[in-house]
């Protein structure tokens, strides 16, 4: 049986976990994150979370999904099964009732019925689940109000300060009254109130706008805590926006201070405002009624201040002196950067505790990833960003973040790659060189040994490693002993064409992983064939036979070998780049005759980035990486030339029955869709 979240003096720092559960409305369509990531069909995801060693889970017990037609017609089956699993594992749920939504379709944030409806639902939840003792009735009320009623991104698509205030008021009134209803059933229930907590920096001439943004960000916490009186810096603004004195005094009289303030901290959540518009691209421009300015991520501007989790925890502690938690620390990036961001958040929380800040937990978010957040949920492009697990597989595939989360919960040391500098601390973060000295950290930790002769492939891989902050060593041939290298080595990446035998012996001896690349040349078959990792290779060329022999040696001798197979690679240049070769021949007026073959091309950047992610995740064995359905090589060649605005008439196929070297996968589908 689970117990309430203990909030005594100086509890240990806990690890929490959370699922991205937004049910967003944009015009007449909905996006349901739990459906898109498959969590709505997998009760066992609760066991995955419990296996991390977490103390609590931000559990999506959403109004829209559970009781869209009212509590009397609620369907509790989804929550029943999952809460029972968490209870059996001793994991405390933090029930989230509305998460970036407007409630069921019969209401919305500007409707007073939103308040009464959510309160009724909260009371029903408390009665159904009396063992649940922690609640977040509404996630990020101010952020949701801004996106729904000030910027117009989400339903009901309003765009005014008055509607923004109304949306915020309704969410916070619903929070206060929902907690009152819950506490009628469970007197000890705690309010874990979350809010996005970035910070705005600016050039001196825009200090007034930055000050306004930085004061407004506290409104959810201030209103709930009964702090917004006539002396409050936002009182005048709220009155101007349409708040009555009665509205504002209501929150003072019904103060409901959170038991834990949940800070959602993102690396790009801190902004920089600059009136020097000529220094920035057009899409960054914004403004207010007085000023026009560029609004960009502070971390991207050389010389601009930015903070991160440590700074935000210190600010919240100074303002409220109440228990705090980092309730979202997700990062959409390459795997080692995700590791670094979670590790930095954990370290920031530990350092804050040493400084006397009452930090209770760090939340591994978003555990199963998220969809369409690159467009703020305003498009449906099939865009997915992985979390602790990658759901682009037959079953959610644990990434290196799972091992890090387990290490955090158990007190074990993290992998060295997690403790090195993230992109936000390296020079490549700077898109806008404005003012100030260059300040950055160099990548640290053990190195990746890249084995291969100088050339386009090695150059491309070195470029990706540099952008990712991965230390590298290079060698045309792998040394017989990895201890002979000047730097410690955590893995070896073996490029096509490099001498082979020494790499397997050295990796086997040192017990370090080996990443190697082969191709679809080891397959050939009828035109309807799509070859997966389960299929037996049938090489018909000397090149294919040589690659198969290398695969067998690597897998046989190195227990940690990862063999990545792909179709034709483009985007790296050089003679191996099919797209570059096609463009050169077309530009010279030379015809291109291709054997009729079904292929699955892959961009070199995608190939290397995904292979490195898999290597860091600890994957072994054979992986097929392809970017989507097979395409006839002639059709793809013509697409490449059209995309380069080069006449495609010189491309044709030789006669005969087409064959297939198309690759598919039964292990996962992590690459983005193909574009020439």
UniProtKB/TrEMBL annotation:
Gene3D superfamilies: Glycosidases, NAD(P)-binding Rossmann-like Domain, UDP-galactose 4-epimerase, domain 1. It comes from the Bacteria. Residues 657-676 are annotated as: Disordered. Residues 504-648 form the RmlD-like substrate binding domain. Pfam families: Glyco_hydro_1, RmlD_sub_bind. This is RmlD-like substrate binding domain-containing protein.
């Amino acid at each position: 049986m689970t117990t309430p979240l203990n909030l005594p003096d100086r509890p240990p720092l806990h690890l929490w976990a959370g699922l991205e559960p937004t049910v967003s409305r944009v015009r007449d369509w909905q996006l349901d994150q739990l459906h898109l990531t498959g969590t709505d069909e997998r009760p066992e995801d609760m066991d995955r979370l419990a296996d991390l060693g977490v103390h609590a889970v931000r559990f999506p017990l959403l109004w829209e999904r559970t009781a869209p037609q009212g509590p009397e017609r609620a369907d509790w089956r989804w929550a029943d099964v999952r809460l029972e699993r968490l209870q059996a594992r001793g994991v405390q749920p933090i029930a989230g009732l509305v998460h970036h939504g407007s409630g069921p379709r019969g209401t919305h944030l500007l409707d007073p019925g939103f308040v009464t409806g959510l309160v009724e639902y909260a009371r029903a939840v408390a009665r159904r689940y009396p063992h649940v003792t922690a609640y977040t009735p509404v996630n990020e009320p101010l952020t949701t109000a801004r996106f729904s009623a000030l910027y117009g991104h989400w339903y009901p698509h309003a765009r005014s300060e008055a509607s923004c205030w109304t949306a915020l008021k309704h969410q916070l009134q619903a929070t206060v009254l929902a907690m009152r209803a819950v506490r009628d059933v469970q007197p000890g229930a705690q309010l874990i109130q979350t809010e996005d907590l970035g910070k705005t920096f600016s050039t001196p001439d825009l200090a007034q706008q930055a000050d306004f943004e930085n004061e407004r960000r506290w409104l959810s916490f201030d209103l709930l805590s009964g702090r917004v009186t006539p002396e409050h810096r936002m009182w005048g603004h709220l009155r101007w926006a349409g708040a009555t004195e009665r509205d504002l005094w209501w929150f003072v009289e019904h103060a409901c201070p959170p038991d834990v303030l949940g800070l959602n901290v993102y690396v790009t959540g801190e902004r920089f405002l600059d009136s020097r518009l000529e220094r920035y691209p057009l899409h960054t421009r914004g403004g207010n009624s007085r000023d026009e300015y560029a609004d960009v991520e502070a971390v991207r501007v050389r010389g601009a201040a930015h903070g991160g989790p440590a700074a935000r925890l210190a600010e919240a502690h100074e303002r409220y002196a109440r228990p705090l938690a980092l309730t979202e620390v997700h990062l959409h990036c390459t795997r080692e950067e995700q590791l670094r961001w979670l590790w930095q958040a954990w370290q920031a929380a530990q350092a804050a505790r040493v400084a006397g800040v009452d930090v209770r937990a760090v939340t591994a978010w978003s555990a199963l990833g998220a969809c369409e957040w690159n467009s703020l949920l305003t498009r449906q492009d099939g865009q997915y960003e992985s979390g602790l697990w990658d759901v682009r597989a037959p079953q959610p595939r644990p990434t290196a973040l799972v091992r890090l989360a387990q290490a955090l919960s158990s007190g074990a040391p993290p992998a060295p790659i997690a403790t090195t500098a993230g992109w936000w601390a390296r020079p490549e973060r700077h898109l806008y060189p404005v003012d100030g000295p260059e300040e950055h950290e160099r990548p640290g930790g053990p190195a990746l040994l890249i084995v291969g002769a100088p050339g386009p492939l090695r150059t491309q891989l070195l470029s990706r490693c540099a952008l990712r902050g991965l230390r590298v060593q290079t060698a045309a041939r792998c040394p017989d002993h990895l201890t002979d290298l000047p730097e410690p080595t955590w893995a070896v990446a073996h490029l096509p064409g490099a001498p082979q035998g020494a790499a397997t012996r050295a990796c086997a001896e040192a017990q370090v992983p080996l990443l190697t690349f082969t191709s679809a040349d080891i397959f050939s078959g009828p035109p309807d064939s799509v070859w997966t990792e389960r299929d037996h290779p049938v090489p018909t060329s000397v090149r294919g036979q040589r690659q198969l022999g290398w695969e067998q040696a690597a897998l046989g001798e190195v227990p940690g070998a990862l063999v990545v197979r792909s179709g034709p690679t483009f985007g790296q240049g050089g003679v191996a780049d099919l797209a570059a070769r096609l463009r050169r021949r077309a530009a010279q007026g030379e015809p291109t005759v291709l054997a009729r073959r079904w292929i699955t091309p892959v961009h070199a950047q995608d190939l290397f980035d995904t292979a490195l992610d898999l290597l860091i995740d600890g994957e072994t064995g054979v992986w097929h990486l392809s970017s989507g359905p097979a395409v006839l090589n002639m059709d793809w060649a013509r697409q490449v030339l059209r995309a380069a605005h080069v006449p495609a008439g010189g491309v044709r196929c030789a006669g005969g029955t087409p064959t297939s070297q198309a690759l598919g996968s039964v292990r996962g589908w992590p690459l983005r869709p193909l574009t020439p």
